[in-house]
Amino acid sequence: AQKITQTQPGMFVQEKEAVTLDCTYDTSDPSYGLFWYKQPSSGEMIFLIYQGSYDQQNATEGRYSLNFQKARKSANLVISASQLGDSAMYFCAMREGRYNQGGKLIFGQGTELSVKP
Amino acid sequence: GAGVSQSPSNKVTEKGKDVELRCDPISGHTALYWYRQSLGQGLEFLIYFQGNSAPDKSGLPSDRFSAERTGGSVSTLTIQRTQQEDSAVYLCASSLATGLAGNTIYFGEGSWLTVV
After folding, report:
1. Å from A18 to nearest chain B CA?
2. Rounded to a whole number, what is the largest CA-CA distance in chain A?
3. What are the chain B neighbours of A50 within 8 Å (beta carbons)?
4. Is the CB of B91 inside 8 Å of chain A's CB atoms?
5. Closest residue to B101, CB basis, from A42, A95, A108
6. B1 band by pLDDT with thresholds 50, 70 and 90
């Protein structure tokens, strides 16, 4: 069963506007972490933001925020004031904690974001 | 080092040859991961190390793939008798010890393997 689902293969956004990238997850582990990574065309994986399952508040890092809805098992990434340099592939990932399945990240299939000038 | 370092950055090899890919994790990171990413696809987990041991090898696609880690630091991923379907980017990552969901995993820039 797929544990991380990103339903938007591609998204377009106008420069300076906000955009939301969707991510839903599935786990029975009460302890887990959710991550978003950015992968530009150069191929490197850049860590953006992290949300823990027990965190009471939504995570924010600069222009990035994570809309964490635990009951819905969703962890959407919101990018405010989009910039041309935000054009990239974005991956949602989950790491389960308590049962320590090696601590590996499980990735979604990604969403390709294109920012239009 | 400051980041995860991988070598070679690019490798073109003939079908049937063996290749070795190297990863040098961030200093102090005891957990090391190998992932594979085919063109336009997500990341596929291969193996992870905690120290020098590999508790989870579940992602290795066949017995042609193996990996080792020595001194709790550098790791080598070896692909024997390469096939064209092995062509992909091989990404190495490291983090502080596993067991805590919040330990961020940092990636290297990858080794682009092309089998011709």
Report:
1. 24
2. 46
3. 102, 104
4. yes
5. A95
6. low
Encoded tokens for A14 = 């106008």
A104 Cα to chain B: minimum distance (Å): 7
Structure tokens of A26?
């599935």
Length of chain B: 116
Residue with tokens 């630091």: B73
Q: What does the pLDDT look like over B13-33, one tens digit per residue? A: 999 999 999 999 999 888 899
Residue B75, C-beta contacts closer than 8 angstroms, at least 6 positions apart:
B22, B23, B25, B32, B34, B49, B67, B68, B69, B92
Going by C-alpha positions, the residue among A72, A85, A91 that lies closest to residue B105 is: A91
Q: Which amino acid is located at A9 in the chain? A: P
Strands (E), A80-110: 88-96, 106-107
* Side chain identity at residue A88, one-letter code: A
Angle at B103 (CA atoms; ends B98, B104), nearest 5 degrees: 120
List the pLDDT tens digit at each of the 117 positions of chain A.
Answer: 569 999 999 999 999 999 999 999 999 888 888 999 999 998 889 999 999 888 889 999 999 999 999 999 999 999 999 999 999 999 999 987 654 445 678 899 999 999 999
